Amino acid sequence: MNWAEVFADKNVVGFMLLFFRFASLFIAVPIFSHQSIPPSVKGAMAFVFTVVLYPSMPALQIDINLASIILAILSEFMFGLAIGIILLLAYNAITFAGGIISFMMGFSMASAIDPQSGVSMPIISQFLSLMGLMILLSIDLHHWALLFINDSISKVPLGGFLMSENLFNYTMHATGNMLMVGFMIAFPIVALSLLADIIFGMLMKTMPQFNLLVIGFPIKIMVSFVVIIAVFSAIMLILKTQMQEAFNMLEILF
Predict the structure, then answer these.
(1) Alpha carbon distances (Å) from 94 to 4, 82, 144
(2) Given a cut of 70, is residue 112 above it in pLDDT?
(3) CA distances from 13 to 2, 73, 81, 150, 228 (A)
(4) What SS3 state is found at 218?
(5) Which of 89, 101, 195, 225 has the most crowded CB, counting CB atoms within 10 A?
(6) Which own/partner pairs from 198-206 qualify as long-range (CB within 8 Å, at least 24 positions apart)?
(7) Do residues 240 and 135 make contact, with C-beta atoms less than 8 angstroms apart?
(8) Per-residue confidence (pLDDT) for residue 116, from 0 to 100
(9) Distance of CA 141 to the CA centre of its chain
(10) Domain ranges within the chain, ordered by starting residue
(11) Backbone phi, then psi, for 120, in 5-degree steps?
């Protein structure tokens, strides 16, 4: 192949679309979308992987005109966004559970900027999110995502991705599942907090001198931390299972 063929219109457009497919992956998918990774690094990674996988790219199937190229670029961003939404709905179950736990512990006002998403988040949610990130690294989710993009090149033509009804239906199901799993993770702490409230209420009736603010809240927080430590491994196991199931469901994009 001479240089004229390398820089032919279809090859240049194909390279650009493949680059946008990787760029959308690094923008939307957990781990890669972490705010601490500079955009320049994400762009460089997308360019490197595009160069590596470009020789295996099939022939481009779109017309070379401005309208088709713009639609193809939007299609590639939608493809990466769909991957990110499916994985984030599974991952955000622990941050949702962390919000419930923080509320029950009285830590709702104790929030900080989450380094992964860049938004304010209760401190328990942030802790679970960071620990969950370590779990994603331990199961090689970043490698799975790159291999998925490699497989998608032959199954989803560049610029040919379209939103399907199955994807919409699964998104609705995954949203409900995220809420259910979040409540399930937070249930031990919620149950013990409600039990502690009942006990403290009985003590205040029998012992009016019992000071709930001075004695009750520290005890409630201590008990909640003990329960979190006891069920922490189960929480991470649930997250691992949810992420593996969500990744297996990415096949609906083909």
Answers:
(1) 52, 20, 21
(2) no
(3) 17, 10, 21, 18, 51
(4) helix
(5) 101
(6) none
(7) yes
(8) 57
(9) 11
(10) 3-253
(11) -70, 135
CA distance 170 to 2: 46
**Residues facing 245 on adjacent strands:** none
Reference 36, options 133, 144, 117; nearest CA is 117
Nearest-5° angle of CA 38, CA 133, CA 149? Answer: 70
The pLDDT of residue 169 is 85
**Alpha helix locations (H) across the chain?**
3-6, 9-28, 39-53, 66-105, 123-138, 141-155, 165-206, 217-248
Lowest mean pLDDT among 104-108, 116-120, 191-195: 116-120
Average pLDDT, the chain: 79
Is residue 60 helix, strand or coil? coil
Q: Tell me the CA distances in angstroms from 46 to 70, 110, 184, one per residue in order.
A: 19, 37, 37
pLDDT in tens, 30-44: 877 777 777 888 888
Non-local CB neighbours of 193 within 8 Å, separated by 6+ positions: 104, 105, 220, 223, 224
**Secondary structure, 3-state, 103-168:** HHHCCCCCEEECCCCCCEEEHHHHHHHHHHHHHHHHCCHHHHHHHHHHHHHHHCCCCCCCCCHHHH
Question: What is the CB neighbour count within 10 angstroms for residue 140?
Answer: 11
Q: Which two tokens stand for residue 157?
A: 């033509």
Could you give the CA distance from residue 197 to residue 175 in angstroms, rounded to a whole number?
31
From CA 164, how far away is CA 107, in angstroms rounded? 41
The model's pTM is 0.80
